[in-house]
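Dear colleagues,

As part of the handover before I leave the project, I'm documenting each prediction I ran so the next person doesn't have to rerun anything. This entry is a single chain, and its sequence is reproduced below.
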Amino acid sequence: MPQLNPDPWFLILFSTWLTYTIVFQPKISSYLSTNNPVNKNNKTTDTKPWTWPWT
């Protein structure tokens, strides 16, 4: 089965990841997020239990 032979695919995989880490990753990580995280006020609401009519 030729797909089990790692010889041609390892070079393709290695070159793809090398290209990604050297070329594309710095470009992608240089973008700034437009939506900065905001501290939300985590208030807990006072809930009342549901009264079931058949109990």
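The chain has a mean pLDDT of 79. The helical segments are 6-29.

All the best with the project,
I.
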